[in-house]
Amino acid sequence: MCRPARDHGLQRMTNDPIQTGRNEMLHTTLKSLTAGVFAATCAFASSATAQDTVLKYSSWFPESHSTNTVLKAWIEDVEAATEGRVTVEYLPKTVQTPRDQFDVVVDGLADIVIVLPGYTPGRFPVLEIGELPLLVSTDEATLAPAFYTLYETEIAPAEPFKGAQVLTTWASAPTHIATKPGPITSMEQMKGLKIRAPSATAGLVVDAMGAVTVQKPVTEIYELASSGIVDGTFFSYGPMISWKTKDIFQNVTVMPGGMGQSVIAVLMNQGKFDSLSEADRTAIMEVSGEKLARAFGAAWQNDEDVALADLGNLTVVEASDEFLAEFKQAIEPVEAAWVEKAKAAGLADPASTLANFRALLEAAQTN
Fold first, then answer.
1. Residue ranges of domains in the chain, CATH in brackets
2. DSSP 127
3. Given 24, 256, 297, 349, which residue has the most CB atoms within 10 angstroms?
4. Residue 202, SS3?
5. What DSSP string runs through 163-176?
6. Using one digit for the tens of pLDDT, what is the confidence trace for 252-287?
7. Is residue 137 classed as helix, strand or coil in its secondary structure?
8. Predicted TM-score (pTM) of this structure
9. Rounded CA gap, 169 and 262, in Å?
10. pLDDT tens, 299-333?
């Protein structure tokens, strides 16, 4: 902090009026010079500080993953929007584990993180709306901004990410049943299978189908699959390439409407965000929010399209009407449980919010 120098004074007691006048002139001159230097130094320090904000990003996705591709483009947008006053740097390695990222950003161990709420069961109940099955009959490019719209209009008031600044949030592509044995064509075939669940809600779905839930982050899927710890997982097509399981899970059952999705968010430390100037905060949010959600959606849908073309060795079947009917009946308690949890967590009318989400998705599909 800049503080003015103490005024010690130069005048001494003297009976000489001429000497007294000289002392007063010298004192005034030095005081003016000191004030000028002080003002210039503080202005320079303030300017340097404003142009030297470096945000640290903790990434846990593979370097080549499209998530990092989108983030790199966003980082360039942030630098351009703030005229170079704010830059973002990748930390050399992930701070803690993927499931710890919310605490990492709230505690300031990193400034920017990507959080999957489903990795911490029970902590983000309101956001589990995006994880429910049988919601999505549209592609990821339209799902992602639709979920962001729902978040902004109906979920944000419940403050599920309290303590962090939400830069954007979206829902990933709907998942399918990917297994070693199979393809799965009935509820009976699911019984006893060990299925890795990508979220807390997915775990409830696995349980409802009579399978055994293995709740682990996606970073562990190759080891789980290759060692035989799990028989399958709920996956969209892109991750089968990204996480190197395409030669292990060679059977896919597609459930109309999806087995569920993962909610994902890009968060920033609240204190760091608040420390930026109002102009820079505004500039960052202008290149974030729905615009960033839309960019993620487009990239992830491209991953789906490319992966599907590359997965020629898969056996892919669509669930029969009978299988779908059995599944719908089995998961009714999962949706009802979410409504109760979301209400207890502060969402005013969860059933209405869910209906609005379905309407948003239907509108996105027809546009």
1. 56-171+262-302 (3.40.190.170), 176-261+310-366 (3.40.190.170)
2. G
3. 297
4. helix
5. TEEEEEEEE-PPPE
6. 999 999 999 999 999 999 999 999 999 999 999 999
7. coil
8. 0.81
9. 11
10. 999 999 998 888 878 899 999 999 999 999 999 99
